[in-house]
Write a structure and sequence with these properties.
Number of strands: 9
Structural class: mainly beta
Strand content: 35-45%
């Protein structure tokens, strides 16, 4: 599965990615993108209530906070945040495993491409 996702600095306006039946994935940041950080939020079901993804074993940010929009979302210490550069591809965090849907909140608005590897049971 491959899709283009709209990323904003506001959780409620960022595109939802359904992750069911997948175990790994990649995010592709297009050349010229202004996005430099992606914070991850997860839900147990598509359209569900999103919670900040935290994982003490990988990729957590050390910054104290960063404003990210009208719905009160701030990137804070302990959240899984991926530092990215334009024109590069990154593996999605392993901490996403088990969620059914996720959103990526950026420090700037833009579109990213995601691709997934299917999980075989």
């Amino acid at each position: 599965m491959d899709e283009t996702v709209s990323v904003t600095a506001i959780l409620s306006t960022t595109g939802e990615v359904q992750f069911r039946d997948y175990r790994k994935g990649m995010v592709f940041i297009p050349a010229g993108s202004s996005i430099t950080r992606l914070a991850f939020f997860v839900a147990p079901t598509a359209g569900g209530t999103y919670l900040a993804l935290a994982d003490a074993t990988e990729g957590t940010t050390s910054s104290s906070s960063s404003s990210s929009g009208d719905d009160g979302i701030a990137i804070t210490s302990g959240m899984v945040v991926l530092a990215v550069d334009a024109g590069r591809a990154y593996q999605l965090p392993d901490a996403l495993g088990g969620c059914r849907a996720f959103k990526m909140v950026g420090d700037a608005a833009g579109s990213v491409d995601v691709s997934f590897q299917r999980s075989f049971a």
